[in-house]
Design a protein that fits this description.
single chain, 535 residues, alpha+beta, five-stranded mixed beta barrel, four-stranded mixed beta sheet, 19 strands
Length: 535
């Protein structure tokens, strides 16, 4: 596949802006080809030129050569307007999906016949072209995740004399419009027999082979549009994600929650433990943070009397990139007055269980391939069961069981003595923790090593120490701990919630502890948000 190039020198043939070095390379290659052509013996005279057959060695060209050749062809069409390669409008009478549902049922069209008197207009992208002589061509037309065959014959064409010339324009990857009659081949495949085909948007680049597909992960991620064209599984992911977001929105709306939008930039990055991005407001000459969470603004709305609010939107965290971390991602946060941790656990279980049922048609079980190699021999697979109630792991109790130790009392886990004890425990069990090795970070690493891997099917981790949770309310019966839970699935966190802290005096102490952690070098610790404390 051709790489996208940018530069300051215009290619006189293709019109691209390319680098000076690339322009020199192309000019040298063209001169070489022209010299070779001049030395070749003149071909015998032929009767008037039919347009060059579409299959003339184009598959053997490298991506740059193909792009150059195709660009010249399209520029010529733009000059001659025969046909116009970029028309303004093509009327589509129905989608490919609707066409298949309407004319596909058995008995609607007999094999080897056409539905005379019916004319339909479809549009989509050509994926494959098969030729059976000069007067018969087959195309696979794809659109909206569906495929239908075009069976183009000279006898069906509105202008039979121009059939060969008209169809020589089309290449794999082109978007075309087809007007014709519903039909079936003798072998029974649903098709459309066109009286006319129109080029709507030509594809200039060589489309990867439909047999081998697009496998290179780097190309798939950087050129997602190409990934969508060639890989149906990628399209299904987009559709599934849309269904998930819509389900969550409907679920919360039905519980009386109001959807809101809160600011993306602020003077203070709060609401989560993460390192923020910094941007600059030119007019105010002020540095601002991109939000790491909408939490504090949403809580201020609850204070203002909006008892149930939620937001689905982007957040930005200036951290590492791996399979489970992205610098920007979509988050859903909801807040409910007069509710506590137990209420939120019930809502979370009901939401996620219902979501899975809506996607599977009623089942609470899913098969997950953690290595992303579904369909391959020897692929690992995990069966996940989302049925309520989910298993609950007490953080301190589970760590004591796994490590064979007794933890210091909960109300001492913030002290220097506890820090020394946690450091020794991590060293003993080969648990790595980079600086700053605060109590909260050491505990988090231990949880990640010994508890999170237990959570394959969805489960909750509860009983967090207060030092790990600056915005959570203290536990009503366990000193030093707080009423917080995290939901995990396949060893990865999917949600985090708690009984909200509404004591402004305690909240200030928690923020001050966060400031101390930041001074120790923890870039992810929060600052003091005076507006939030005031609210």
């Amino acid at each position: 596949m051709a790489t996208e190039s940018t530069g300051t020198h215009k290619d006189p043939v293709t019109g691209e802006l390319i680098s000076k070095q690339e322009l020199k390379r192309r000019e040298k290659q063209r001169a070489k080809e022209a010299h070779k052509a001049a030395k070749a013996p003149a071909p015998e005279a032929k009767p008037k030129a039919e347009a060059k057959p579409s299959g003339t060695n184009e598959e053997e060209l490298n991506p740059n050569q193909y792009y150059e050749l195709r660009s010249r062809q399209i520029l010529h069409l733009k000059q001659t307007q025969s046909p116009n390669p970029y028309p303004h409008k093509f009327h589509v009478s129905r989608s490919i999906q609707s066409y298949i549902e309407t004319f596909g049922p058995e008995g609607k069209i007999a094999p080897g016949t056409k539905l005379e008197g019916t004319t339909e207009s479809l549009a989509g992208r050509i994926h494959n072209i098969r030729t059976s002589g000069a007067k018969l061509k087959f195309y696979d037309l794809h659109g909206e995740g569906f495929k239908v065959q075009i069976m183009a014959t000279q006898q069906d064409a509105a202008d039979p004399d121009s059939f060969v010339t008209a169809h020589d324009v089309f290449r794999r990857g082109d978007i075309v419009g087809v007007t014709g009659t519903p039909s079936r081949t003798k072998k029974g495949e649903l098709s459309i027999s066109p009286s006319a085909m129109q080029l709507l948007s030509p594809n200039l680049h060589q489309l990867p082979s439909s047999h081998f597909g697009l496998k290179d992960q780097e190309t798939r991620y950087r050129k997602r549009y190409l990934d969508l064209i060639l890989n149906d599984n990628t399209r299904k992911l987009f559709i599934t994600r849309s269904k998930i977001v819509n389900y969550i929105r409907r679920f919360l709306d039905n519980l009386g929650f109001m959807e809101v939008e809160t600011p993306m930039t602020s003077l203070l990055a709060g609401g989560a433990t993460a390192k923020p991005f910094i941007t600059h407001h030119n007019d105010l000459d002020l540095d601002l943070y991109l939000r790491i969470a909408p939490e504090l603004y949403l809580k201020e709305l609850v204070v203002g009397g909006l008892d149930r609010v939620y937001e689905i939107g982007r957040v930005f965290r200036n951290e590492g990139i791996d399979l489970t971390h992205n610098p920007e991602f979509t988050i859903c946060e909801f807040y409910m007055a007069y509710a506590d941790m137990e209420d939120l656990m019930d809502i979370t279980e009901a939401m996620v269980e219902g979501l899975v049922k809506s996607l599977t048609g009623g089942s609470t079980k899913l098969i997950y391939h953690p290595d992303g190699n579904k369909g391959q021999e020897g692929a690992r697979q995990l069966e996940l069961d989302f049925k309520r109630p989910w298993k609950r792991h007490d953080m301190i109790g589970t760590l004591e069981e796994k490590l064979g130790v007794t933890f210091p009392p909960g109300d001492t886990l913030h002290t220097k003595e506890a820090n020394k004890w946690l450091r020794e425990l991590c060293t003993k069990h080969n648990v790595e923790c980079s600086e700053p090795r605060t109590n909260a970070r050491l505990l988090d690493k231990l949880v990640g090593e010994f508890i999170e891997p237990l959570c394959i099917s969805p489960a909750f981790i509860v009983g967090h120490p207060q030092v790990m949770s600056p915005l959570a309310k203290w536990h009503r019966s366990r000193p030093g701990l707080c009423e917080r839970f995290e939901g995990f699935l396949c060893g990865k966190e999917i949600c985090n919630a708690y009984t909200e802290l509404n004591d402004p005096f305690e909240q200030r102490l928690r923020f001050e502890e966060q400031v101390r952690q930041k001074e120790q070098g923890d870039d992810e610790a929060q600052g003091i948000d005076e507006t939030f404390i005031d609210a």
